[in-house]
Amino acid sequence: MTLSLLACAVALAAFVQGSSGLGFALIVAPVTGMLAPELLPVFVLAAMIPLNAYVAWRERSALDLRGASWISAARLAATPGGLALLWLIPERGLGLFVGVATVLAAVVSLAAPAFTPGRAAYLGAGVVTGLTETATGVGGPPLALVYQHRPPSELRATVAACFLVGEVASLALLFGTGMGSTADLGTVVAVLPAIALGAWLSRLVHHRLDARRMRLFVLVFALVSGAALILGM
Asked: Could you tell me which residues come within 8 angstroms of residue 47 by beta carbon, excluding any fewer than 6 positions away?
C-alpha cells in the first residue's frame, strides 16, 4: 500500500514538475514524510534525477546558462551544510522539519514580489537550495522565486539543470558519509514507471498549461500537505 501511494504521488509530481518546472519535492517529500519518513531525503533526491535529466534535455534551448552556473556553484558549496542539518535533526524530527520547511517555502513563494534576478539572487537561491534539498529533498522554492517571472520554458530548463547537478552532489555526499541507504534506491527503481508516466503526460501539455494556475496548485498543495505533516507528528 505504501509503495502504491508513493507511486501515485510520484506520478502526479512528475507531471506537475514536467509541466510547470517545480513541484516534485513539494508534493513527494510531505507524502513520503507521512508514509515512510526513513526514506527521506534519499528517495526524493534520487527519484528526481531521471525526471530532471529529461526536462533539462527537452527544454535545453531555453536554458539560462549564466544563472544556472552561479546557482550550481553556490548550491555545491552549501551541500555540506545541508548534511550537517541532517546530522543535527533526530530521525523522529525529520518529518516535522520537512513539514515546516515545506510550509515556509510555499508561503514565501506566494508572497514574494516580482523582481529581476541578478548575481546575488542566484547565489542566495543556490545556498538555500543546497541546505534544504540535501537535508530534506525540498529545494525548488528558492529557484522558483528567482525564475517565477521568466518564460516558463526558461524556468523549467534552468531549474531542472540546477536540480540535476545538485541532486547528484547531495547523493554522493550522503552515501559517502554513510547517511544514505541503498535500500532507498530500490524504492526509486520500483516507482520509475510512475515517473516515466508523469513525465510523458507533461510532454503532451507543458506548452499549453497556464503556468500561473499550475504554480498556485503546487503551492496550495504544499501548504496543505506540509500542515498535515506538522499536525500528524
From this structure: 10, 24, 28, 188, 191, 195
DSSP 39: G
- Cβ atoms of 62 and 195 within 8 Å: the answer is no
Integer Cα distance of 129 and 22 in angstroms: 13
What are the tens digits of pLDDT across the range 42-74?
A: 999 999 999 999 999 999 999 999 999 999 999
Asked if residue 140 lies in contact with residue 29, where contact means CB atoms within 8 angstroms, the answer is no
Radius of gyration of the chain (CA): 16
**Contact by Cβ (8 Å): 75, 129:** yes
Q: Are 109 and 128 in contact (CB under 8 A)?
A: no
- Interval 82-101: pLDDT, tens: 888 888 877 667 667 777 87
CA 96 to chain centre: 17
How does DSSP assign 116-182, residue by residue? ---HHHHHHHHHHHHHHHHHHS--HHHHHHHHTTS-HHHHHHHHHHHHHHHHHHHHHHHHHTT---H
- Cα atoms in the 13 Å half-sphere on the side-chain side of 209: 23
Contacts of 211 (CB under 8 A, 6+ apart): 20, 21, 152, 155
